[in-house]
What we know:
The complex is a heterodimer.
Chain A: H1 9-27, E1 31-34, H2 39-52, E2 61-65, H3 71-84, E3 88-92, H4 93-98, H5 116-127, E4 131-133, E5 150-153, E6 181-184, H6 192-202, E7 213-220, E8 223-226, E9 240-246, E10 257-259, H7 265-274, H8 279-283, H9 293-300
Chain B: E1 2-10, H1 16-26, H2 32-44, H3 60-65, E2 72-77, E3 81-87, H4 95-102, E4 107-113, H5 120-131, E5 136-142, H6 151-165, E6 173-177, H7 201-207, E7 221-222, E8 225-227, H8 235-238, E9 242-246, E10 257-261, E11 266-274, E12 277-279, E13 287-292, E14 303-305, E15 312-323, E16 335-340, E17 343-356, E18 363-364, E19 375-388, E20 399-403, E21 410-419
Parallel strand pairs in B: 1-3, 1-4, 4-5, 5-6
Antiparallel strand pairs in B: 2-3, 7-14, 8-9, 9-13, 10-11, 10-14, 11-12, 11-13, 15-19, 15-21, 16-17, 16-20, 17-18, 17-19, 20-21
The structure holds guanosine-5'-triphosphate and magnesium ion.
Guanosine-5'-triphosphate binds near residues 13, 67, 68 and 145 of chain B.
Amino acid sequence: MRSDYLLSQLDVLESESIHIMREVAAEFERPALLFSxxxxxxxxxxxxxxxxxxxxxxxxxxxxxxGHNFPEVIDFRDRRAAELGVRLIVASVQxxxxxxxxxxxxxxxxxxxxxxxxTLLDAIEEQxxxxxxxxxxxxxxKARAKERVxxxxxxxxxxxxxxxxxxxxxxxxxxxxxxxxxxxxxLSNWTELDIWDYIERxxxxxxxxxxxxxxxxxERDGILLADNEYLTxxxxxxxxxxxxxxxxxxxxxxxxxxxxGATTVAEVITEVAATRxxxxxxxxxxxxxxxxxxxxxxxxxxx
Amino acid sequence: xxxxxxxxxxxxxxxxxTLIGRLLFDSKAIFEDQLASVERTSRDRGEEGTNLxxxxxxxxxxxxxxxxxxxxxxxxxxxxxxxxxxxxPGHIQYTRNMVTGASTADLAIILVDARNGLTEQSRRxxxxxxxxxxxxxxxxxxxxxxxxxxxxxxEEICEEFSKFATKLEVQDLTFIPISALNGxxxxxxxxxMPWYDGPSLLHHLEHLHIASDRxxxxxxFPVQYVIRPHAxxxxxxxxxxxxxGQVAGGVLKPGDExxxxxxxxxxxxxxxELAGKEVEEAFPPMSVTLLLDDxxxxxxxxxxxxxxxxPAAAQDIEGMVCWMSADRPLAPRSRLxxxxxxRTVKAIVTDLHYRIDVNTLHRDETATQLxxxxxGRVRMRLTQPVFADPYxxxxxxxxxxxxxxxxxxxxxxxxxxxAR
Lengths: 303, 420
Ligand SMILES: Nc1nc2c(ncn2[C@@H]2O[C@H](COP(=O)(O)OP(=O)(O)OP(=O)(O)O)[C@@H](O)[C@H]2O)c(=O)[nH]1
Ligand SMILES: [Mg+2]
């Protein structure tokens, strides 16, 4: 029996996230959950399932598909959505490019990362979504560390970090005008380690690339990239086999792998607990362009 | 492991962000790439050493201006506890962001620059933390290195603060002399101040007892969402009606007799579910689903409590307001939208009793309005009742936010003193 009425940190975080999700379901007309098939969105989806049980999740999930994703992750995405019986909306960056809404970048880091914003904002407008759940955590990055749980976006999808709404206790202001929307971050207070601890505790399935596997990789600017059809290697970038796993899951063009032998959640947790580098620092080329890369992207309407 | 949430407070440049940087750095909670990035930025800006404040001051504008603008949340854990830190801005213009960070804190560290002593802004923040009823306060006298680690300076500031604090409702107060820049008494006890025999700041944060800060007596369950599976074919779920919400007070158990507000109808708890699984009890801050014995018409915004212990169903609210809008003042006849627990109603300000001078805590009864960042006591009339307690009894059923109907922004906050 509990006599001290204390909750573990995971229980506190879970309860806070569920509260946030129910608040959105109650206050918005057309919410959706951004689901990439990555570990954070997997946890977020698991929490959504819990929040409304035994009813179905009362909103669709949406993936912004860059076309440069890991195939393992896309498979996982489709399977998970089917299992849960949720409606999966896929908005394609390729289609944005084909229709002339977005222009493919060129250069060494041919990333579609930034283009996702165009596709995302178009999809929000088209689907008339008024709230979108994102799996971002404040511990990921210094601009994210500043963002509210209910983060207001104007009619252009922009975030104004200097003018955020006050947010007190567990009271979230959900009021918006037509054309505006709110990005909601139920995992705001979770750390990378909390996510892994939760995956272990809840026995959540995650895409195989999060565990150590053999892969043909090459090194660019200190990042281990999967040898893939979307990137052109230079002569010194010779591919080699390595045992790696992924700490984050983004595009194949910008997401680096880490050398690892961790094949179970417990082993991953041991590694994460001992690591001295942040997950984005270790693996994301998109944040290396400038000190304020994330803030700038977020202002434009990025996740 | 439990979680302690704490916030920094105090005047601009008193060293709040530096302290958080130091705390993270000395407790080895900084990652190599974060440190490298901060070192690079410090060097590029031509600063002497590594500016640890850059660990939290992450926005472009903050780095340009060298001040904190909005709350930064940081996380770290020691073997004893997980910490959620809200590093808040000291600049008066951003008081609303400080209030945001402090509203959920179990503890606030109020920093004071040892050279300057208490400023108006230190008093404003100290007052706000007590108004928000942050249960534990630490007064950290910072920059002790700049006053030769002088015990007398420390004691004078403590005395000045104690005098000010007698006019506030402070529940727990600790004084610690520190140097955020050099790390004295932050993680380890400092050799520079042998005259100080208290704990280091981190030691204090790790050992503080917070379990008894919650209200486990008054059962308060604001109904947030009604779960009704649309599964007419499944006989088990056909009649399922779950009332979902986050427990705001008290302990609920299956079999307990409960009362529904506003109807006044009593029934019993049939079952409590947490994420679809049955649990034996629910208490704050658990998000659960209640199933009741009788079919009562219950919807979002209602409240479940015990028959002999109810909050007021109040349409007249007395409370302390912190006004957070530069675009319009708060004055008698102001019309606003109020969000209280899961209920949103309209309100009109019927009276402004006084405005508080944060320096002297003097009540100015001639005040006719509250401007940006001003604090005062008001009376409001609501279009519909809310189920409220005094804020001193329960932070969740005693707090509300004020929303401007035209712009939709949050323009103020109310700590209820009396609801009827
Ligand atoms: N000598 C000395 N300088 C300090 C100490 N703590 C902070 N500083 C300096 O004081 C200045 C302001 O520090 P910040 O940490 O940015 O102050 P702040 O309280 O976070 O300011 P705002 O967030 O803008 O309100 C910086 O130049 C720091 O290096 C200290 O203990 N000793
Ligand atoms: Mg600061």
